[in-house]
Specification:
Oligomer: heterodimer
CATH class of the largest domain in chain A: Alpha Beta
Number of domains of chain A: 2
Number of helices of chain A: 5
Helix content of chain A: 25-40%
Largest interface: A-B, 60 and 63 residues
Radius of gyration of chain A: 15 Å
Number of helices of chain B: 21
CATH superfamily of the largest domain in chain B: Aldehyde oxidase/xanthine dehydrogenase, molybdopterin binding domain
Structural class of chain B: alpha+beta
Strand content of chain B: 15-25%
Number of strands of chain B: 27
Shape of chain B: globular
Strand content of chain A: 5-15%
Number of strands of chain A: 5
CATH architecture of the largest domain in chain A: Roll
CATH class of the largest domain in chain B: Alpha Beta
Order of helices and strands of chain A: EEHEEEHHHH
């Protein structure tokens, strides 16, 4: 199967039913995308499919053949971090950090769609779960990044 | 049991059973250079500090970071006393020597009333108890991250290790330059003299190793440049780009992946499995039956070429399970048994003052209420997992654990190896909250590694396995009563609660050598009930300890997590029954507890207690001490569709000296959300032995849209540091429930709060 992950074309021998999450983590060693629930309830596994946020734990890999998949590993580079990554550092968002890859990918998709989101937009788009309770800082960081992008 | 036995009960936990009382004095927690890993070019100056050639510092990191920012806070202590920039400190996992054990956590298990044990002027019994438990704990050297104790525990010895290292480096420069040491200055790891001589720590390290500085003193707090400053966490960048390595992110050559199914009926066993169908699935390598060890549940695992293949095949194993012989566990039945025990058993009295029976007998009226709290799961975002490899007689483990030494010991036992053949690497923890004080997944991964012909195996539990095979916060039921005299004043407070004691069960799983045949009274059952600051003339607090068969464990803030709901809701009831404002009622009872009163005043002032709120909104307040820190919270709540909506929580905390105010605010915010999830939704039900909640769909967490704004106000303090990771959990539920009473007129005495 041919996949485009973070701009790279890769050919993998995988079961078409295998969720994208496990292809990324176990077949490609892209471990930034996390397993949290397996039922699309927590969002820790959020990646972009053609720019749209999808929960990779319930996305069969066959359904993304031909699409552009982007994971946290391609959100920014150390030379050119994504504005959200800078905002995440400025607001000191992560605690344990486990959910933050998914949070960032969901937030990046939101900003791409809505560069100046309201609190209501954030409530609606950011349904990812965080057990450390970083929500208030996630919100502040999204607003900060939105301001920086203007 | 009499009061004089109480001190022994506290000691019992850490093991008054320990033989060979050849104790290590406090100063020897500095350790020796050979406690640290020997690394090319680095010079170790003691058991905590190595100096690299370029002058950078390598510090032994003995505590696990599960989000609380402890790696940063402890590095800040070293940066302060060594006078180096925080960014020049690298962390190296500490070894297993006793110097890395946690003494403060065990001292925290002593059942002393905080008003009688705070400060330096302590009664003899308190001093004796603390001294003895400290000695036992130092000897035990149990390395654990828990009990909100890491900074408290490191406060003296880690700073002293860094200060002594700095003194050695200065003596080295003085010797080399033939100059008096007092003329030398240090700035950012560079030693200089007015003559123009200068050297970095790397150039002085070899000479420093030969020095034995005497009379080292710690910096005066007025000279601190690092401690007390809101300092960005060094772990944050890696947590924004996917490079942070949690347990589940370990990748090794030729690694295999495993999925597990454990006995669904709590306490039950596996009678047989048929694996033919599973073995026929693609990518499957092996099916392994797992026996129970260190408290783990029995079951089986499938090893395969990916986690998904293992999960798919695990579904195809046909297993026969057997209920436990005592009969199936059922939470409804446990609840009624606890209620019965409150009536029939007197329990262990943790605190007694005056004569409660007489006060109640002579009262104009007695106010009574019964409260209860359910079982709760930890639900860390990173499900339980562990990676292990057994090759050439050596077992290597990668684990997100709060107890590396205990995990290593348990793995060695199950693998039948000596401990020196077992290496345990601690990864980052995707949440802990007490769940990772257990070693069940480590002994399971060990069993798999032993069966994998040298290949590394990563065992990852599904969320369903994680939620249905937790060590749950135990259910508790409490009966509270208060005597009101003819003038309407509350004269007494009596509390009796019933539920399982965690510490003896945990000891039997992970520290079996110290687990006795009889349970000593466990402070964690009664904390938050027996240790209240309110000046009622007559008080009695007792706990009836039960054994209901549910695996129970330490859940963030432990006994305080439910006991504060019982006590602070009931105090609120008494305020309304006395027709007094809840704030004024509390303050009147805190005349002899000025620290508590100050925290309560700060929170209520910042929240503008008593001022007008939007229509349909109300304030509720609660005050609670735990892990040495006092926290007051004011919750602003409205009702939306029968459910409380918490808009804002104003929190004041007195946690002694603050190392990093940034992480204190983070922990307060985290605790509020963690506690709000429990207050609104948290409940584990067990029917026919099977846990009914199995994922976030039926064990929901508070999300962004339900999150309140959390404000943190820190009380300035020069006392020694106290706990931060947990103390803001307990007051949240009663603060919300007390606000809900104002809105609905209905007093909720059961968690979760369903109006």
């Amino acid at each position: 199967m041919n996949l485009t992950v973070n701009g790279n074309n890769v050919t993998l021998e995988v079961d078409p039913q295998m969720p994208l999450l496990w292809v990324l983590r176990d077949s490609m060693n892209l471990t930034g995308t996390k397993f949290g629930c397996g039922v699309a309830a927590c969002g820790a596994c959020t990646v972009h499919k053609d720019g749209q946020p999808v929960r990779s734990c319930v996305t069969p890999v066959s359904s993304v053949a031909g699409a552009n998949i982007n994971t946290i590993e391609s959100l920014g580079t150390s030379e050119k971090p994504h504005p959200l990554q800078l905002a995440w550092i400025a607001e000191q968002v992560p605690q344990c950090g486990y959910c933050q890859s998914g949070m960032l990918m969901a937030a990046a998709a939101l900003l791409a769609r809505k560069p100046k989101p309201t609190d209501a937009d954030i409530d609606e788009a950011m349904t990812n779960l965080c057990r450390c309770g970083t929500y208030q800082r996630v919100r502040a960081a999204i607003h900060r990044a939105a301001g920086a992008q203007a | 049991m009499k009061r004089r036995n109480l001190i022994l009960s506290g000691l019992g936990l850490t093991g008054a059973l320990v033989v060979g009382w050849g104790f290590m004095p406090p100063r020897s927690r500095m350790g020796q250079p050979d406690n640290m890993l020997l690394t090319e070019g680095d010079v170790a100056l003691n058991g905590w500090i190595k100096i690299a050639k370029d002058g950078s510092v390598v510090m032994a990191m003995h505590r696990s970071d599960m989000g609380q920012g402890i790696h940063n806070a402890l590095a800040m202590l070293v940066a302060e006393e060594l006078d180096v920039p925080l960014k020049s400190i690298r962390l190296e996992q500490a070894g297993h020597d006793a110097i890395y054990g946690n003494v403060a956590m065990f001292v925290g298990t002593l059942p002393f009333h905080p008003l009688k044990s705070e400060g330096t002027d302590k009664p003899l019994m308190v001093k004796t108890g603390e001294w003895m438990v400290s000695k036992v704990a130092r000897e035990l050297g149990v390395n654990a991250t828990g009990g909100s104790s890491s900074v408290k525990d490191a406060w003296e010895n880690l700073r002293m290790a860094a200060a002594t290292a700095k003194a050695s480096l200065l003596l080295s420069a003085a010797d080399q330059w033939k100059l008096p040491v007092k003329e030398l200055r240090v700035t950012d790891g560079l030693v200089t003299h007015a003559s123009g001589k200068s050297a970095n720590y790397g150039e002085l390290a070899k000479g420093a190793a030969a020095q034995t500085p005497a009379n080292v003193v710690l910096k005066d707090r007025k000279d601190w440049r690092v401690i007390g400053q809101a300092t960005p966490r060094a772990d944050v960048p890696a947590k924004t780009n996917g490079t942070a390595v949690f347990g589940m992110d370990i990748r090794l050559p030729n690694m295999l992946f495993a999925s597990i199914v454990q006995v669904p009926q709590m306490g039950g066993s596996l009678s047989s499995i048929e694996v033919q169908d599973a073995m026929a699935m693609p990518g499957v390598v092996k099916c392994v039956q797992l026996s129970s060890a260190a408290g783990s549940a029995p079951g089986y695992a499938v090893i395969a070429k990916s986690t998904w293949h293992a999960q798919q095949a695990a579904q195809k194993v046909k297993a026969q399970w057997v209920q436990r012989k005592e009969g199936a566990i059922d939470t409804k039945r446990i609840e009624s048994e606890l209620q019965d025990k409150l009536k029939t058993e007197s329990g262990f009295t943790f605190y007694e003052l005056g004569d409660v029976a007489k006060a109640e007998a002579g009262a104009a009226r007695v106010i009574q209420a019964q409260y209860k709290a359910p079982y709760l799961a930890h639900a860390t975002m990173e499900p339980m997992n562990c990676t292990a490899q057994f090759k050439d007689g050596q077992l290597e483990i990668w684990a997100p654990t709060q107890v590396p030494g205990l995990a290593r010991a348990a793995a060695a036992k199950v693998a039948d190896l000596s401990k020196d053949k077992v290496k345990l690497n601690v990864t980052l923890l995707g949440g802990g909250f007490g769940r990772r004080l257990e070693v069940d997944v480590v002994v399971q991964a060990t069993q798999l590694a032993m069966a994998a012909n040298g290949a590394p195996v990563q065992l990852v539990w599904s969320r369903e396995q994680d939620m249905t095979h937790d060590y749950y916060r135990p259910m508790h039921v409490a009966q509270l009563s208060a005597a009101v005299n003819g003038q309407g004043q509350v004269e007494s407070l009596q509390i009796k609660s019933a539920g399982d004691a965690i510490s003896p069960r945990w000891m039997s799983r992970v520290l079996p050598a110290l687990s006795g045949p009889i349970d000593a009274p466990d402070k964690t059952t009664a904390e938050g009930l027996f240790d209240l600051p309110y000046g009622f003339a007559h008080q009695r607090m007792a706990h009836v300890s039960t054994k209901m068969g549910v695996p129970i464990g330490f859940w963030r803030s432990v006994g305080h997590s439910h006991n504060a709901f019982f006590s602070e809701s009931f105090i609120d009831e008494l305020a309304f029954e006395s027709k007094q404002d809840p704030l004024a009622f509390r303050l009147a009872l805190l005349k002899n507890a000025p620290r508590y009163a100050a925290v309560l005043k700060l929170a209520t002032e910042k929240a503008k207690w008593g001022s007008a709120l939007p229509a349909g909104h109300a304030h509720g307040v609660a005050l609670h001490e735990s892990f040495g820190s006092i926290v007051a919270q004011v919750a602003e709540v409205s009702m939306q569709g029968g459910m409380p909506r918490v808009h804002r929580v104003v929190c004041a905390i007195d946690c002694g000296t603050v190392v990093n105010p940034g992480t204190v605010a983070q922990q307060v915010e985290s605790s509020v959300i963690f506690a709000l999830t429990a207050a609104l939704y948290g409940q584990i039900d067990i029917q026919e032995g099977v846990v009914q909640q199995n994922n976030f769909t039926n064990y929901p967490l508070v999300s962004m849209a339900q999150s309140p704004v959390v404000e943190t106000w820190i009380v300035p303090s020069n006392s020694a540091p106290e706990g931060v990771g947990e103390p803001a959990v307990p007051p949240l539920a009663p603060a919300v429930a007390n606000a809900m009473y104002k809105l609905t007129g209905k007093r909720l005495r059961s968690l979760p709060l369903v109006a």
